[in-house]
Description:
alpha+beta, outer membrane lipoprotein receptor (LolB), chain A, 12-stranded antiparallel beta sheet, globular
Amino acid sequence: xxxxxxxxxxxxxxxxxxxxxxxxxxxxxxxxxxxxxxxxxxxxxxxxxxxxxxxxxxxxxxxxxxxxxxxxxxxxxxxxxxxxxxxxxxxxxxxxxxxxxxxxxxxxxxxxxxxxxxxxxxxxxxxxxxxxxxxxxxxxxxxxxxxxxxxxxxxxxxxxxxxxxxxxxxxxxxxxxxxxxxxxxxxxxxxxxxxxxxxxxxxxxxxxxxxxxxxxxxxxxxxxxxxxxxxxxxxxxxxxxxxxxxxxxxxxxxxxxxxxxxxxxxxxxxxxxxxxxxxxxxxxxxxxxxxxxxxxxxxxx
Length: 301
């Protein structure tokens, strides 16, 4: 992993520790409103963000799976793409090659109105069986997808395209890497997180939230056998061995290298580190505002 990205993750951890147990002071609503106004102004302005109702986002992806002890685990590369049309239409496609020389697998996860689905879009025959934490529970899958969409909306658009996203002021944070102002965020899918804004520019530096670590459980099928089954995007995980909700771990989503697209400032480099889970690096290749989606775009494939 690049030195700068390691520093980013270290800074994220320091910022997170700096605000542990922090209680907002009197007047937090006014402070949150002022910070949110600064944040949206620096991203492109209230009017511009309000005009963004849909988004397509594509990036090259490098994923490092957990290893033994402090050693990194296996690496895989591929790309991710997600489309957001509105609060009930969301599609995330994760394409990756789980082993060197193996054709890529593409796994889709989507909200399509009142329906939700997750599964392989393309995969080598007789390939890999993949299990994930939602365990075939439609309600759990829907909540997870709503939470994922909220996370991406908050990180990229300050939540301006979704209803029900709430911000409160958490306080300042400081590390050797710099200073930040912190907003507590709540939103659809029971999302809860802390958004760290650069003290000088008000740009999002990092989003800290809770995530289920996603690991890969692979099983080769017989030649000519059925394609792999899957449930969920990201680094797929083994299904829980016992009933109940999977354990949540802290995740850091670091945002940098901002550039303007269609009048809105977006990060072009994203690093995501999940405790006891994978580390992902995204290099953004394409962003499109308010794309036109076909009638069947979000339907199960």
